[in-house]
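[step 3/7] fold_predict: job queued, chain A
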Amino acid sequence: MAFLKLKIVSAIRKSLPLFALLISFILPKMVYSQQSNTISFIDDIPVMETMNVEPEFSFSFDSPSGRIIILFATSDEKEESIVRFYDEIMPQLGWMMTDSEYLRGSEKFELLSSNNQNGIIWRLSITPKSID
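[step 4/7] structure written:
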């Protein structure tokens, strides 16, 4: 009987890291889908309903050092509103603000804006911390 208990405890201990990993990816998305209908996700990047993603310039791939996701988007929202949106949403998804980027695990999320002739274009990216 003790041998059976030992096998069960061992199996549970081995599966806990996998369970924690699954929860860390699923739970933030569940929280946001319940909080607001105006948030959608593209490759784990939250996108405001008022943002128009430019698919011809956006891409995602896995590299040897980690995943790289870059979205380009436009919006009629004021810059302050978009920055405030990400300042509120990213910590709830487990991202911690450091300087001008958010960090979570081995990844960083950056929100950059640039003016062009048609207005502001936004660059939203998730990259490994080591990529500059």
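[step 5/7] annotate
The chain has two domains: 1-35, 38-128.
The first strand starts at residue 39 and ends at 42.
exit 0
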